[in-house]
Design brief:
The protein is an alpha+beta fold and 490 residues long. It has one domain. Strands 1, 2, 3, 4, 7 and 8 form a 6-stranded mixed sheet that branches. It has a 5-stranded mixed barrel with strand order 13-14-15-17-16. Strand 14 and strand 15 form a beta hairpin. Helix 7 packs across helix 8 and helix 9 packs antiparallel against helix 11. The radius of gyration is 23 Å and the shape is globular.
């Protein structure tokens, strides 16, 4: 049903809350959680890690979004003899305060993730923890889990170690400002401008990232560049949709975290512990990927081949950088969703097709994701010489549930993004847009317009279309409460 922007004043906060409840989330913290929270007033004491290393003297820093307050990780790096660079990833200690089956843990286990909408964040853990007591905040001493990794000149991981350590965040930095400085060599963030050692350290991070990426690309890591859209809200009204630009600062954190997550899986398997792994299986829709490549004048093998696909993507990124995000979006949809699985070290494992990794867990965001919290408990059990705190079948059930709730979280986020977009487009019924097909199944055909980047359903003219096809569409209706945006093919 078409809505008139001038007539209706939709409250996105209320709609987000309703969407959370509809998808089975606890949108608010229970009284039991609040009661437990009232008794927690101090971060993990230094005495909690009697065998932890003291690494507070290192120049740790964080890079995150401008508005992020829940800091899950810090990084540091140094050059070692023989051309080796050593990277350190410090992960927030969450499980000391969030003990298993306590009220806060039960809430986290119910939701399994923080859920992000245009106007509200529904945090997995109460902000008193995630943005304070368990956050690696600037100028605060914290006990953490550290993953130490030696990287060769070619970008291969030569050695790794996992242990507890005390750390101190020396600089809280943001993706956009650091990325702009790295790419233009101008307008350094104040903390970087004032500290040459920090500037040199970030440049070293950037150099290591280049090596890590190059090595994984040689093994078939996919160079995808998809579009992330953010709603601009002013006085509770949606005034614009902007694309979040990926940059070298984001690349640094992404690649350091991938390295750390990979090493955590190897660490657990080396100790004969199960790993709560993240996988993207080989794509079932590979034939359609082959067709898309043929349309671009390239040839892919008839069976899934990550290295061949990566060569195709790199070639297309050079040939046509403007439309490469559209191709990336189509490939992402055809690769399929990721999922959580449990495996033991002596069992054959499915790798992460998009990352070209056989060993990959989620461990570096325990304030935001429950799988990372579970993995942290497994790590601590190993470090403390304790048995596995989870039965294997229990982990299998948790993996399936976390996968399900991640899907529910994505649905809430997408619905609210589309509700925000529907508000913006409600006065533009009849406007024509260039678009790309992003989904096609028994429930219908879905498209994303190019500018502005808006997802919607193709309610007329979808016959014969497939993921990746380009077309022109006309906006025919919006439904703000349900997040429906309908287009027809021109």
């Amino acid at each position: 049903m078409m809505q008139n922007k001038a007539k209706f004043n939709w409250n996105l906060d209320d709609l987000a809350h309703q969407a959370m409840v509809l998808r089975g989330f606890e949108a608010d913290f229970t009284q039991e959680v609040l009661d437990q929270l009232n008794a927690l007033n101090e971060p993990v004491p230094m005495s909690a890690g009697p065998t932890a290393k003291d690494l507070r003297d290192k120049l740790w820093f964080s890079i995150d979004n401008d508005d992020s307050k829940d800091l899950d990780q810090l990084t540091f790096a140094e050059v070692i003899a023989g051309g080796i660079t050593r990277i350190y990833v410090s992960i927030a200690d969450v499980t000391t305060l969030v003990t298993r089956d306590c009220p806060i843990d039960k809430h986290a286990a119910k939701n399994t993730t923080s859920v992000y909408t245009p106007t509200l964040v529904f945090p997995m853990l109460p902000p008193k923890l995630s943005t304070n007591l368990t956050s690696l905040n600037e100028n605060q001493e914290r006990l953490s889990i550290v993953v130490e990794i030696d990287v060769t000149q070619k970008g291969a991981i030569q050695r790794y170690e996992v242990y507890q350590a005390y750390v101190r965040n020396k600089a809280k930095l943001a993706y956009d400002s650091v990325g702009n400085w790295l790419e233009t060599e101008k307008d350094a963030p104040p903390a970087v401008e004032q500290n040459k050692d920090l500037a040199d350290l970030i440049i070293l991070h950037d150099q290591i990232t280049t090596k890590l990426k190059a090595y994984r690309e040689s093994k078939g890591m996919l160079s995808l560049k998809t579009i992330e859209v953010r709603s601009i809200i002013q006085n509770h009204d949606v005034i614009d949709l902007v694309v979040v630009q990926k940059n070298r600062a984001r690349d640094i954190i992404e690649n350091f975290m991938i390295a750390a997550n990979s090493c955590v899986t190897k660490f657990l398997h080396a100790k004969n512990f199960p790993a709560f792994r993240r996988v993207v299986k080989e794509p079932k829709k590979w034939p359609r990927i082959v067709v898309l490549a043929q349309e671009k004048g390239a040839k892919l093998p008839p069976v899934p081949d990550a290295v061949a696909l990566e060569h195709f993507l790199l070639d297309q990124q050079k040939k046509d950088p403007e439309t490469f995000p559209d191709l990336s979006l189509a490939i992402v949809k055809l690769l399929g969703r990721g999922e959580y699985v449990i495996d033991m070290p002596d069992e054959p494992s499915t790798g992460h097709f998009g990352l070209a990794l056989r060993h990959y867990s989620h461990a570096t965001a325990p304030n935001r994701r429950y799988p990372d919290l579970i993995t942290q408990r497994l790590i601590k059990a190993v470090l403390n010489g304790q048995p596995n705190p989870y039965a294997f079948n229990e982990l299998v059930d948790l993996a399936a549930y976390c996968t399900e709730k991640e899907g529910d979280s994505d649905k809430v986020t997408r619905q609210m993004q589309k509700s925000a977009a529907a508000i913006l487009l409600s006065s533009k019924i009849g406007t024509e847009y260039d678009a790309i097909v992003t989904g096609d199944n028994e429930r219908g055909t879905w498209v994303r317009t190019i500018n502005p980047p808006v997802d919607g359903k193709l309610v007329k003219g979808g016959a014969g279309l497939d993921i990746g096809d380009r077309l022109s569409v006309k906006l025919v209706a919006v439904d703000v409460p349900n997040g429906y945006i309908d287009f027809s093919k021109i």
